[in-house]
């Protein structure tokens, strides 16, 4: 059944992939952006300008749109400075998502779909983590600030009466226009030999292709229970595995190896954490409850496709 859908963050990497898929399913799509000129082409029915930090404007626009479902795909991870990106994303989660949720309830929406992340889980040994694992709310620095804001937004989402809340916890997003694509930040760091292996390289990353991130949204527009779901591929990978493979596909130099002590003196805290102690996540809940299977079940084929080395 066609739905009226509002997409915030429509110009982001997931939003741009999602919009044409919603239209193909026959849904009425309203894109919410800070500037209406940032969207081009016949991918939406309507574009409205609104800032998630302006609750009054949001409420007016959503009442006009009268959505059945509101989707929040906003983030600030495109900011050039990593610390600023974390701070701005924390602000969006802490205030923007809650403002959008308030406006959605006021407009009579039935379901709210938010963006989460598996990287926010508290590391625990060598475990691959599920949705019942705790978020790392006492993590240090700007990362901890961002995780606390995400946890607060999810709590609000899951407890708000009058609307069903779903949080899709993505892994490391890759694919067109992401940090892993040619020209992206990760690509530049690998090509420039600026992203090393650290110690044994046992930090685990779960990856999510943007096509799978967008595809899951289609599945949960109406179906499935409210709550949190990990949206990741089937193969969490240690840094010692995915980083050299990525370098080969990118025709870049093999990554150098640093000791943990060397890395801590040369790299930012978050990068060291990701390469040494971050944990991956399981997609078992999503597979069991919705029968979902990722289009890209392994980052290996997904990376190869991203570099034009996999059959279309």
From TrEMBL:
| InterPro entries noted in UniProt | Epimerase_deHydtase, NAD(P)-bd_dom_sf, NAD(P)-dependent_oxidoreduct
Q: Which residues form the NAD-dependent epimerase/dehydratase domain?
A: 5-231
- What Pfam families does its record include? Epimerase
Q: Which Gene3D superfamilies match?
A: NAD(P)-binding Rossmann-like Domain (3.40.50.720)
Query: Which protein, by its recorded name, is this?
Result: NAD(P)-dependent oxidoreductase
């Amino acid at each position: 059944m066609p739905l009226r859908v509002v997409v915030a963050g429509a110009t982001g990497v997931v939003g741009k992939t999602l919009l044409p898929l919603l239209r193909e399913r026959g849904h009425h799509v309203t894109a919410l952006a800070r500037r209406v000129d940032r969207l081009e082409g016949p991918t939406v029915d309507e574009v409205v300008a609104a800032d998630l930090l302006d609750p009054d404007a949001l409420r007016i626009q959503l009442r006009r749109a009268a959505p059945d479902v509101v989707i929040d795909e906003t983030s600030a991870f495109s900011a050039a400075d990593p610390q600023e990106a974390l701070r701005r994303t924390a602000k969006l989660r802490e205030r923007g998502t809650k403002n959008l949720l308030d406006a959605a309830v006021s407009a009579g929406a039935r379901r709210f779909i938010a963006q989460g992340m598996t990287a926010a889980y508290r590391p625990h040994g060598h475990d691959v983590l599920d949705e019942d694992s705790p978020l790392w709310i006492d993590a240090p620095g700007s990362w901890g600030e961002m995780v606390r804001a995400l946890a607060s937004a999810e709590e609000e989402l899951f407890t708000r009466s009058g609307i069903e809340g779903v949080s899709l916890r993505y892994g490391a997003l890759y694919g067109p226009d992401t940090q892993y694509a040619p020209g992206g930040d990760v690509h530049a760091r690998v090509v420039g030999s600026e992203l090393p292996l650290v110690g044994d390289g046992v930090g685990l990353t779960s990856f999510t292709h943007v096509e799978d991130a967008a595809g899951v949204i289609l599945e949960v527009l109406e179906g499935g229970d409210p709550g949190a779901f990990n949206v990741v591929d089937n193969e969490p990978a240690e840094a010692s595995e995915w980083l050299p493979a990525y370098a080969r596909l990118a025709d870049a130099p093999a990554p150098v190896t640093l000791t943990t002590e060397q890395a801590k003196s040369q790299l930012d805290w978050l990068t060291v954490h990701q390469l040494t102690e971050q944990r991956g996540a399981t997609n078992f809940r999503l597979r069991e409850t919705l029968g979902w299977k990722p289009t890209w079940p392994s980052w290996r084929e997904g990376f190869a496709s991203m570099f034009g080395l996999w059959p279309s």
